[in-house]
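Cross-posted from the bioinformatics board.
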Amino acid sequence: MERRRIRLNGIVQGVGFRPFVYQLATELDLSGFVRNDAHGLLIEVQGPTKRLDEFHTRLLKQRPVLARIDRHRSTTLNVQKPNPFTIRPSLRDRKAVTGILPDVAVCPLCLQEMSDPLDRRFHYPFINCTHCGPRYTIIRSLPYDRSNTSMAVFPLCPQCRQEYESPKNRRFHAQPNACPVCGPRLTLCAADGRPIHAEPLFPFIWQQLQQGAILAVRGIGGFHLCADAHNSVAVQTLRLRKGREEKPLAIMVRDRQTVERHCRLDEAENELLFSAARPIVLLQKKEDSDLAYEIAPGNRCLGVMMPYAPLHHLFLSGPLDSLI
Ligand SMILES: [Zn+2]
Ligand SMILES: [Zn+2]
């Protein structure tokens, strides 16, 4: 029997590390705890030496995909009375030095739930889980816990709380966990600020965009103006309002198929387009693309990006496959 303290530094908070450690320790029948603190992740595990070695190897090898371990240290402690493995509340410290993850593009499982009419998060634009969703933009202070994020004002409903507290659930300790009952909501307003009550909301938005409306999407960093990329009049109007006469605009498209209809795409460009940072990639426009000429007048290239927030996917899941 042995007890070890393992300290991990790097990007180890907000990536599902605590649930992962919990599951691994429970599977190997080890006792101890895991907690976030201002320096990263602190683990204490106790059990037979052979299983502790296995724990350590798998900890580093099978770590959550989004995690980055810069340093790990292990020390031996005195053996204590064994108790079931737990996730302990985080320790606060004035000098926070741990890494923070940027926001993460919505994952395939969340996308699937969001498009299932029977799911309780159907068309819910703030869906997220342990492996995706906002991180950097909602963190107010460290360690990364719900109480230190802008989600603190949305108390979890019983169902969300249950997900948050169940080790087997994919939202176990997902700090921004939310649903239409307890989480943030989307409001649609007319140009004069008057709320528009449309039910269901997204088909109404798609219809408006198809008719040439310009939508101002309020995000954390400001407003993002969008319109149907096939609609010349809408694109021209948006240019006028932005005071941007000729500078090329970027487009966001539904999927790879749509990209290939309008642009030439090689494997390297494709990889870049779908990489975690979801950058705008400059691609060569095809001659026969039917996108509005006004997007990038006189330009042979087109700035293209893939959707990353659930809301982008919702905008593009109806009749429109390209937006500016
Ligand atoms: Zn997800
Ligand atoms: Zn909820």
